[in-house]
Amino acid sequence: MRQKSAVALHWFDPFGSKDFHDLVAYPAIVQGHRILFWDQEPVYKDSAKVFFDQFCKIYRTRRRPNYHTTLTLVTSECDSKDVQWLQDTYKIENIAHYFFHGWAALDWYRGYNHSYLGQPWMQRSFDKLYICPNNIVSGNRQHRLSLLHEFSQRGLLSDGMMSFPATCPYSGQSVQELMRDHGWNLPTSISLPLIIDTQKNHAHDSHKIDFWDEAMRCFSHVVTETVYVSDRIHLTEKTFKPIVLQQPFLLISAKHSLAYLRRYGFKTFDCIWDESYDNLDDDKRISAIADICQQIQQWSPTQMRQAQERAWPIIKHNFEWFYGDFQQVLWKETQQMIEQW
Predict the structure, then answer these.
(1) Which of 89, 92, 166, 255 qualifies as a cystine partner to 193, CB 3.0-4.6 A?
(2) What is the C-alpha to C-alpha distance for residues 53 and 46, in angstroms, rounded to an integer?
(3) Is position 92 within any domain?
């Protein structure tokens, strides 16, 4: 008897895995429409090839007459050459996109709008320019090394609160070794690790925010996103932390990431600094953000207060939007994606 065409969902468990052995399939079907959610992590050609060679061997090989299966790949990134390469190489019928990490942030940061963990923005006084959590600093996240080098060269580290490991927890390589690979040397006055909390470093706890006291002292939040190279946009929960903390933010991410965020109803901070860095190429964006931090470094108390006042309407909008209509925007996007299936 010929089996009716069916739909199976595939996703990874545990969260963040890209290992074929961590793939979940539900329900079990022989043929039909398979929808694969590669939405937690970016698609990188090398690791994706290892996975898809196994996936296609099991789920896409014609094993009997009239066997047929179609595949939809769901990602959380747009404008990605690696995703296009996957589609072309493995003859994937459909590519879909939705803002997975927007949903994750709404889940992980729920309830903070009803807490008293932070001071109201206009009541804050600042003794630091920025807060900047970092954890993994090698591989595809080596732009964080560039940030550390740029900020150390400009004397910006002492005026901010940055966390940075002495050894990358992912690769096991020392930061000194990784920096030397780029031809950089940290000043001997900088002792790693850098931490933003005197008791323990919480930078790796993406699913929660627990450096509230430190953030209240910092005028801005320098977000070092997972993806920096400009051929893809992949924003994560990191971008939403300053929104929940009610801070202006500078986004170290792929080119046009600020514009992407504005598509979802958020506002950014061109009223207090030059956001043209969002349009610059990879080798210029970090330097442009360091320029902004140096400008803030020179502000008088009056200029700081004026910037605080100009930032407030945007901070208020973003906070209320995140805990308000943002979910409806995400839901509409998700429904439109599902309707295409």
Answers:
(1) 166
(2) 11
(3) yes
